[in-house]
Design a protein that fits this description.
By secondary structure, the chain is an alpha+beta fold. It folds into three domains: about 10-125, Beta-Lactamase (2-Layer Sandwich), CATH 3.30.450; about 130-165; about 180-330, Reverse transcriptase/Diguanylate cyclase domain (Alpha-Beta Plaits). About 40% of the residues lie in helices and about 20% in strands. It is built from eleven helices and 13 strands. The chain has helices spanning about 10-15, 35-40, 50-55, 65-70, 110-120, 130-165, 180-190, 205-210, 215-230, 255-270, 300-315, and strands at about 20-25, 30-35, 55-60, 75-80, 90-95, 100-105, 195-205, 235-240, 245-250, 275, 280, 285-295, 320-325. The protein has a six-stranded antiparallel sheet with strand order 2-1-6-5-4-3. Strands 8-9-7-12-13 form a five-stranded mixed sheet, with helices on both faces. A two-stranded antiparallel sheet has the order 10-11. The longest helix has about 35 residues, at about 130-165.
Length: about 350
């Protein structure tokens, strides 16, 4: 037997061992196809076709006839289907002296993934000893692991978002809490952004708690929060700073008249009687206003200014809004201002 001669195997044996082989005549006509290769061109019978009518030779370049190609036996070849899908295939050709034909064995190489998708290939389409089998198992295992990792990551992200949302939310009103307020103010000041700040306190809230109970007080806080939500913009931050105190942060809003009008509208709506069972709750509101033009004011200073303006509204008789002006702190001995991280109510 010569160096190129193959064992005298029948087509059935070759199909089992080499499902991607082609048996060719000495002139390049296709005499037999392995079952997997036949599956790749299921809609086109290839028996009797010239090899170069089915494949485009990509390597070696410049070969135009099958007789020239036979000079590259035992060399690595590269083919591409002419018709779509134009799958790339690696190949090697040997002579089969037992049958007087030429045996061309093909494999997918790096195009394996695309071929599996394009041709709906499964494990029986590959020889049992083909390393592609192990690759398929590894790919499937990797896909399962990655999919599970993505699901786990989504669950963790959802849990993290829920935890962060809970950590920054006042459970009674659904507004931001003091921790979230500090975070927003720190970010705006650090970025040098201009914003308005309204410190709002509910007047006569203590009387509601004392006469009707804490459940009525909770109901009033929820109604007051709903009023604020309806009166402000989606980009504004509404926070319950503690007790019956609220802070509203309005990015980009520094016009004094606008802030005063907004505060007065809020107070007017808070003065609407609030039904509670067979009773009616009556409250009002006092507001202190300050602004940051994106300068060097610290968060604590801005909160102190708003608190001083709020105290001035209380001094004026409640149910009104006051804009902070320098020197306002000397009006009288005001209570301690709302400090960062505090949660004391009036």
């Amino acid at each position: 037997m010569t160096q190129d001669a193959s064992f005298n195997l029948g087509d059935d044996a070759r199909d089992a061992l080499l499902p991607m082989h082609v048996r060719l005549s000495e002139t390049g006509q296709i005499l037999h196809l392995g079952p997997t290769l036949a599956k790749l061109r299921r809609g086109r019978p290839l028996l009797g076709e010239d090899l170069f009518n089915v494949f485009r030779l990509r390597r070696p370049l410049g070969v135009r006839a099958f007789s020239e190609l036979q000079e590259f036996r035992h060399k690595r070849l590269q083919f591409q289907f002419i018709d779509p899908p134009e799958t790339m295939l690696n190949g090697m050709m040997v002579a089969d002296d037992a049958t007087g034909s030429v045996l061309l064995h093909l494999s997918f190489g790096t195009s394996l993934l695309e071929a599996i998708q394009d041709y709906d290939l499964h494990l029986p389409d590959f020889a049992p000893t083909d390393p592609s089998i192990e690759m398929l198992y590894l790919m499937e295992a990797k896909a399962i692991v990655l999919d599970e990792w993505r699901r786990l990551n989504l669950r963790l992200q959802s849990a993290k978002i829920a935890a962060e949302e809970q950590a920054f939310t006042d459970t009674l009103t659904g507004l931001k809490n003091r921790r979230a307020l500090d975070h927003v103010l720190d970010r705006l000041v650090a970025a040098g952004e201009a914003f308005g700040l309204i410190h709002l306190d509910l007047d006569f809230f203590k009387q509601v708690n004392d006469t009707l109970g804490h459940a009525a007080g909770d109901h009033v806080l929820q109604v007051a929060s709903d009023v604020m939500v309806r009166t402000t913009r989606a980009q504004d931050t509404l926070a319950r700073a503690g007790g019956d105190e609220f802070v509203i942060v309005l990015p980009g809003t520094v016009d004094h008249d606008h802030l005063l009008n907004l505060s007065e509208r809020l107070i007017s709506q808070l003065e609407v009687p609030i039904p509670y069972g067979n009773d009616v709750c009556r409250i009002s509101g006092s507001a202190g206003i300050t602004v940051s033009h994106g300068g060097a004011k610290k968060v604590a200073d801005l909160l102190a200014e708003a608190d001083q303006a709020l105290y001035a509204s209380k001094e004026r008789g409640r149910g009104c809004a006051t804009l902070y002006r320098p020197g306002m702190a000397q009006i009288s001995a005001a209570p301690q201002p709302l400090q960062k991280g505090a949660a004391a109510g009036r």
